[in-house]
Amino acid sequence: MSAQGYAGESVEKEPRSYWADEEVDKILKERDAYRLSTGISPSGEIHIGNLREVVTADAIYRVLSERGAEAAFHYIADDFDPLRRVYPFLDPEKYEPLVGKPLSEIPCPCDGHTNYGEHFLVPFIESLKQLKIELKIYRASEVYKSGKMNPLIIQALSERAKLMKILHEMTGKQFEDDWYPFNPICNTCGRMTFTSVTAFSEKDETVSYACACGDKGTVPMAGGGKLTWRIDWPARWKLLGVTIEPFGKDHATRGGSYDTGKRIVKEVFHGEPPYPIPYEWISLKGMGDMSSSKGNVLSIAKVLTIVPPEIIRYMILKAKPLRSIVFDPALPLLSLIDEYDDREAKGRDERAIELSKAAGFTSIDIPYRHIVVVSQIANFDIERSMNILDRSGYPSTDRKELEKRMIYARRWLDEFAPEDIKFEVKKDLPAEAQNFSTQQKDFLRKLAEELKEGMSGEEIHETIYSIAQKIKDVSPSHLFEAIYLTLLGKKKGPRAGWFLSFLDHGFVVDRFQLASRQ
Questions:
Q1: How many other CB atoms are there within 10 angstroms of residue 95's CB atom?
Q2: Cα 48 to chain center, whole Å?
Q3: Is residue 157 located within the same domain as residue 268?
Q4: 169-207: burial string, b at 16+ Cβ within 10 Å, e else
Q5: CA 465 to CA 450: how far, in whole Å?
Q6: pLDDT for the residue 15
């Protein structure tokens, strides 16, 4: 891969190591099976921050496949977790009585899905399709209800003394003698957060319990409850044969969930812990780390209406997992898309681009900022946009890809663009352009004389500055305002040189001449 130097000579780019290749180098040395696992509890809107785990795993999966390794990739929806509290987006009257019940057993907030967990899981699965991430999805509720977890539940209940010892040594937590690593679901109130195990039968595969609501009873291990979190995670490693797993940095702290799970899976379930890939959070610019329970989110489904899926892949893949990512959907998003599309863009990571495109995505090779400007000039008409780009040096534009980018551009302009990025080329001379100073009128008159049809954006840019420097007693910014006021009726707009190059030459000259005579 080469880049152009300042004088046009070919300059070789330094080869860069890439985090997924480095991780796979280690994995291939340490493991002889390659089964990746990711997952989340669908307790709220699944946001772009949650996506880092699955995109990270997808990169490892693709690199392993490149190396000829036979890899598998799955996602676990923890829909058998209880509803912890009434989140800000829920109706307190409806959901307060449901706190403590499994997500899979709670009604859908919109009444359009089979249960609460599916309400958040279904749009996420659709987003994965758009991102072209293919994996097997397990619902924890189905896994537990199938009885496949029963042998591990029996093992955990039988060796609770060993579990208490491990947890105490790893976390310092003290346990009562009647503690069990299982949360039964009460037959009366349906909650699992207020029950305690009183006995269990390995032969019948049942658990007896007492609940704070006053009920006592017996439930089957298959679907009658679930293992507590720190036990459930290593039990899943054993059940599904997980050998590689990305997870949030909170689980990677010393003595945290992963360290504890390593001991549990080895000493209790007689399995091996997965190769760990901890990752940092994705935060939302100006709002901090995203949290579904706090309502501080930008959902994946929403993001994918304003950002092409390959750009989201690239944003995550270009950063090492333990490097934080700040998602800013305003102007920095344009730079990110340009970086993906422009082969010579500064900071572009070719390996991340390669893995972003590995799912079948392409790039359009037109700066996205150009598309944002051209779309507005053409009032989002595809034919006019194609014509503008053709005369601006992009004669081989892929119509289908341009249409896609224009749809994203329109949504971005509606949702996140700063006001000074939005504009409309006025059909008539705006009222704001009818009271210019003598210097502004002189500037526009000379500019109309100097502009020639077919000039590039850079040539127009140099012409503008050359004329501005010769006009005394006025600042260049005051003169630039005259350009935008004449065409847009506002003081600011896109970079003047290439903006004017996109417009019809005759229209620009006539408009500047008209404004100079007012």
A1: 19
A2: 3
A3: yes
A4: ebeeeeeeeebbbbbbbbeebbbbebbebeebeeeebbb
A5: 12
A6: 46
- Backbone φ, ψ for residue 399 (5° rounding): -60, -45
Pair 285, 173: CB distance under 8 Å: no
In a domain, 456, yes or no: yes
- Which stretches of 78-115 are DSSP H helices? 92-95
Q: What angle do CA 41, 44, 46 make, to 5 degrees?
A: 75
Intervals of the chain under pLDDT 70: 1-16, 287-297
Question: What are the CA-CA distances from residue 456 to residues 160, 248, 444, 470, 510 (Å)?
Answer: 75, 49, 19, 22, 19
What is the distance between the alpha carbons of residues 290 and 52, in angstroms, rounded to a whole number?
12
Judge if 444 and 392 occupy the same domain. no
Whether 512 is covered by a domain: the verdict is: yes
Burial of 6 (0-12, 13-18, 19+ CB in 10 A): exposed
Residues in the chain, overall count: 518
Q: Which two tokens stand for residue 9?
A: 């000579």
Instruction: Give the number of other Cβ atoms within 10 Å of residue 88's Cβ.
Output: 11
Boundary residue ending a domain (217, 251, 279): 279
Q: Is 332 among the domain residues? A: no
Backbone phi, then psi, for 35, in 5-degree steps? Answer: -120, 110
- Output the pLDDT for position 5: 26
Q: What pLDDT, on a 0 to 100 scale, did the predictor assign at position 8?
A: 29
Type of residue numbered 108: C
Q: How far is CA 468 from CA 440, 479, 509, in A?
A: 10, 7, 17
pLDDT for the residue 366: 87
SS3 10: strand
Which of 262, 279, 296 corresponds to the end of one domain?
Answer: 279
Assign residue 444 the CATH number of its domain: 1.10.10.350
* pLDDT tens-digit readout, 281-328: 898 887 666 565 555 568 888 899 999 999 999 999 999 999 999 999
Question: CA angle, 70 as apex, 68 and 71 as ends, to 5°?
Answer: 115
Q: Does the residue 57 lie in any domain?
A: yes
Show the domain range for 86.
Answer: 19-171+228-279
41 and 118 in a common domain: yes
Q: What is the pLDDT of residue 294?
A: 57
CA distances 64 to 231, 241, 319, Å, are 29, 17, 19
Report pLDDT for 397: 80
The pLDDT value recorded for residue 287 is 66
Q: CA neighbours within 13 Å on the CB side: how many for 488?
A: 23
Mapped onto helix, strand or coil, the DSSP state of residue 482 is helix
**333-341 own/partner pairs: CB under 8 Å, 24+ apart:** 333/307, 333/412, 333/416, 334/368, 334/369, 334/372, 336/311, 337/307, 337/308, 337/311, 337/368, 338/367, 338/368, 338/369, 339/314, 340/310, 340/311, 340/314, 341/365, 341/366, 341/367, 341/368
Residues 381 and 236 in one domain: no
Residues 401 and 511 in one domain: no
